[in-house]
Structure formats: C-alpha cells, structure tokens
User: What shape does this take?
Amino acid sequence: MNLRELALLLNLSPTTVSRALNGFSDVSEKTRQRVTAAAERHGYQPNSTARKLALGRTDCVGMIYPLQPNDLNDPVFHAIVGGMTDQFNDAGIDLMLISADNHNELQTYQRITAGHRVDGLIVARTCVFDERLRYLQSCQFPFVAHGRSQMDTPYPWFDYDNDAGTRAAVERLLALGHKRIALISAPLALNFAMQRKQGFVAAMQAAGVTVEASLLQEGALTAQMGEALMHRLLKQSLRPTAVVVDNNLAAMGVLAALRQAELRAGTDISLIVFGGVAPELAMGQNITAIRQPDPREAGVTLASLMLARLRGEDTASLQVLWPTLLQPGTSDQVCLV
Assistant: This one.
C-alpha cells in the first residue's frame, strides 16, 4: 500500500496523511492516531527518501576526521565510534565517517554543510582556537564537540577533565620522590594537549619544582613521534627519572624507544600514560594510567548530546565533563636517584 491508497482508504488528502505520519502540529491528535493505526493495520511503510525530503532531513550525522594510520589501530577510537553508532542506530540515524585532508579540513566542513549532506556534525580533537566550531556556529549548523575550545558563546560539548588528570599523574610521581619529570605531549594547538600540559605545570609549580623546558617535549600524536621524542629525552646528559605521556598513541612509540635502549618502565624509569595502554600492547606490562572511563559510553553520550541538539534543546545545557581516574600499575616506582 502506498500513501495515496492509504489516504483514499481514510477519506483524507495525501497531504494530511503525510503530515500526520510525520508529526506536524497542524494535524489533530485524533486524526494522527487514526492515520497511525491504519498505517500499522495495513502494513504501510513510508518512502524514506520522500519522507526525508519532506522534512528537510537526511537522518544522518557526520564526523569529519583526518584519519591517520594509527587511528585505525586505536581501540579507544573504535570504542567511541561503536558507542555513537549504537545510540544513533536506536534513533534510526546513520553515522557517517568522512575522511578529510588535515590541511584543508575546514573546506570539507563547508562542502558538507553547504550541501546539507548530514543533519549534524560531531567535531573531534578540538583546537584551542577552533575555526571549525566558529564556522559551524556562525552558520547555525547543529554540532557537538568532542572536547572544549575557547568560544564566545555556549555550544554543546563532551570532554574529560584533562587538567585534573595530569595533575594526578604528577602528584603521584612527586609522592614517589621524582623531581625530574618529563612530559611528552600532542601538538599544543589541540585543546586536550594544552589542558594536560597546564595540569602538569601547575602540579609541578605547586610542589615548588622547576619545570625545565628541555623536559617538555611537544608534537607526539603518533607512535613514530612518541618514539623520537623519547629518544631525545634519553639522550640528555641528565635524563628524566619519570615521564608522563599525554596520549596512548604516542605511548606506543615511547615503549618502543625504551625497549631499544634496553630500559624497562617501572624498573629503570617511571611512566604514566594518559588513556593507558592495553597489556597486550605493552608486552604484558600493566602501565600506570590516567583512565578516561568507558570510551564506548563516551560515544553513547556524544550521540545523545547530538540527538538533544537536533531536538532543539538549549545548547548551554548540553555540556558534559567526565572525571578521569588514576589507575596504578607496575610502570612507576619510587625514585632511586
């Protein structure tokens, strides 16, 4: 049965039947219930393409992402995407991953929004000053940011307490007697990296420990860069006794550099990783970590915020900050130097 046949059966116009099925407010509740019951009784299935055109919707949410090879092997990335997919699927919405050139990412945003190819966008890896968020806000296109940014007006976001996480890592290492503590961070244009560095520096200064510039190594968001920066630290005449790594991708390279130098985390040098490293990827070792609890549930939360934004809920109320959790392992120890 098609729409016209259903309308004829009910002695209503096809327009009234369509508007009743799509929830328009100008159709009475009595008529809506009558149309819905008849549609169910006669097995009517609306044409999804026609319905989307009528409502001006795509039933699709996008996430534009300049994918790197390491992302495809990142279990946290997989879990977050899996959580979003499940939540959107329950709402009858598809999640579209859109690959973009890292140097022309904004152009992809402009193309996707201009063509209205999706109903909303999840913005990942926010920057301290994020031109993507400013663009989306300027054209009033629905979005949710995975991470915070410096913006003039409220916007929807989900994030972890990055500052508190690295504070906890440094405080633990200081309590173990370490003073010469290094930080390997992602590029500081990324907001999470800047927040984690701020937490690191604040904890060191609060303890009266000088933060040496040579111990702050920036730019690692891949295993390759993590390895290179760790080698740079190990070549110093007075190398650090402990290292905090602000992301799990760089940590893989840090562990590789330690193996090449025939050093072991927890025996020769202390190591804490923001996000952690699975034991099977760390040769069975339990790495002390600042955990971001349940990445799959984080994906569910991101999707829920997006659905609320699409329903028109107030953006200022759509902001969620989760605490981090310090999880002790075997990769840090009392300073013996």
About this structure: Residues 75-90 form the longest helix (16 residues).
